[in-house]
Amino acid sequence: MPARADYKRETIDAILDEALVAHIGFSVEGVPYVIPTLHARVGDNVYFHGSSASRTVRALATGTNMCLTVTLLDGLVLARSAVHHSVNYRSVVVLGQAKRIAEPEEKMVAIEAFTERLIPGRWEEVRPPSAKELKAIQVLSLPLDEASAKLRTGPPVDDEEDYALDTWAGVVPLETSVGTPIPDGRLAEGTALSAAAGRWAADRSSRT
User: Fold this and answer.
1) pTM score, two decimals?
2) Third-level CATH fold of 2-158+171-177+191-207
3) Is 127:44 a contact under the CB 8 Å cutoff?
């Protein structure tokens, strides 16, 4: 529905920054693919990455047309009629051609962004990638030159005559819950919980 479109960068950026998983779509020799991936936005570009041996990464590095999408589900919209059931959501579609990042410095920026995207503050707690690891990782950048958001909010929209029906209608909110961090079984004795993970989990738990 065109009325749900939003082309403002602040809307697009906010949705990209909140979503944890993106899907990338492209075609290789006429065969369509849609692949889930982690992503991170830095300024006017969205980064994603994979193994240097990945068929997906190799195909996209050639500059083939692609799209990247994210979707956040906010609620189930239950109407009085079956055909008007829906969901409240926020989504973004980015179209374009990806560029392979060759410079180690920009690769490092992207990998730091991936890490911080998952848990803010985590980059300072972990070992950075080695030169060998950087070589094994392929990072791609997709510009936000052609991007749009679509959103649905609010209650169901029924046919006027259906509002008189004795049928419950409304919205069931959806939220992502965050559990207590589970330590790796091979942690060195006495290793304390990651401060970044603890802060993030406590912050998310307080919102629910």
Assistant:
1) 0.92
2) Pnp Oxidase; Chain A (2.30.110)
3) no
